[in-house]
């Protein structure tokens, strides 16, 4: 048997508020986890335990935020302001502004890790400030209630009961003030962490700029050296090419001289053979014939 909800259902929220949520639903489905908001909404009596359980039962982030938005549409006019408060309290300041149409909806969030950390911390600080303001108003209201109560019960309630009621409210006030002090300390810690991140970011940016300048200088020097070596190599190749052309001309001349000498040698051999050939009716006087290369 299902548990009976502790908070009565209030009916649909205002049409204008529902339209704003509808316009921002796709953006919220991409960036908000519904279970991050249930504790605040439950504490502010916007949703009950059954609603909280239903939202947190979603398997994916998109399912959980869809379940939550569907429930809030049927939780009366307070659901809209409660949703904005829950978003800001839990670090979704940007989403709350989107719903209120204060910022343009972008298809993708910023992906710079350092800026995302800054934004998250700023949202958390803003959320804590809202909580402080909320509790401050509550404390002020409690003070008013105490004054009214004093006037109402002064002549109708025994002194002992008045003291008990006074002690009860003073205890409540002290608890609220202690809670505000804790929240202030948390804000101070967040602000210190934010400042440290700013300092680290500035230091890292300076280091990266120095490294970039050093690499740029090395690149310029390497490029200059490369161009210089390239120019020297081109000059050397041109000189070698010129020298090779000179050698080719010399080889061509030597080859021509060799061809001429070869031709002269062949002509001399032919003349020698012609002189030493045996003629009919004449004795062969080999002893008298001399090769052309032995002639003087």
UniProtKB/TrEMBL annotation:
InterPro entries, sorted: CARD, CRADD, DEATH-like_dom_sf
Domain CARD: 13-102
Basic and acidic residues: compositionally biased ranges: 285-296
BP-aspect Gene Ontology terms: regulation of apoptotic process
Region feature Disordered, mapped onto this chain: 273-296
UniProt keyword annotations, A-Z: Coiled coil
CDD domains (alphabetical): CARD
Coiled-coil ranges (or none): 162-264
Signal peptide boundaries: none
GO MF term (any one): protease binding
Protein name: CARD domain-containing protein
């Amino acid at each position: 048997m299902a548990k009976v909800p502790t908070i009565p259902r209030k009916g649909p929220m205002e049409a204008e508020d529902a339209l704003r949520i509808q316009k921002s639903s796709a953006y919220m489905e991409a960036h908000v986890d519904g279970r991050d908001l249930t504790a605040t909404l439950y504490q502010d009596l916007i949703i009950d335990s059954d609603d909280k359980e239903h939202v947190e039962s979603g398997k994916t982030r998109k399912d959980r935020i869809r379940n939550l938005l569907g429930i809030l549409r049927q939780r009366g006019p307070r659901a809209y302001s409660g949703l904005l408060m829950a978003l800001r309290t839990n670090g979704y300041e940007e989403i709350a502004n989107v719903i209120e149409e204060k910022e343009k909806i972008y298809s993708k969030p910023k992906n710079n890790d350092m800026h995302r950390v800054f934004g998250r911390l700023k949202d958390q600080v803003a959320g804590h400030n809202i909580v402080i303001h909320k509790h401050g108003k509550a404390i002020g209201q409690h003070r008013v209630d105490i004054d009214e109560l004093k006037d109402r019960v002064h002549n109708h309630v025994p002194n002992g009961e008045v003291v008990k009621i006074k002690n009860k409210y003073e205890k409540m006030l002290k608890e609220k003030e202690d809670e505000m002090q804790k929240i202030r300390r948390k804000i101070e810690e967040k602000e210190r962490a934010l400042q440290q991140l700013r300092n680290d970011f500035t230091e890292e940016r300076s280091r990266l700029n120095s490294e970039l300048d050093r690499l740029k200088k090395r690149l310029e020097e390497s490029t200059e050296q490369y161009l210089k070596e390239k120019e020297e190599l081109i000059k050397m190749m041109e000189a070698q090419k010129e020298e090779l052309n000179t050698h080719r001309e010399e080889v061509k001349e030597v080859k021509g001289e060799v061809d001429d000498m070869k031709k002269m040698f062949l002509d001399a051999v032919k003349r020698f053979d012609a002189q030493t050939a045996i003629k009919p009716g004449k004795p062969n006087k080999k002893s008298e014939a001399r090769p052309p290369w032995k002639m003087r």
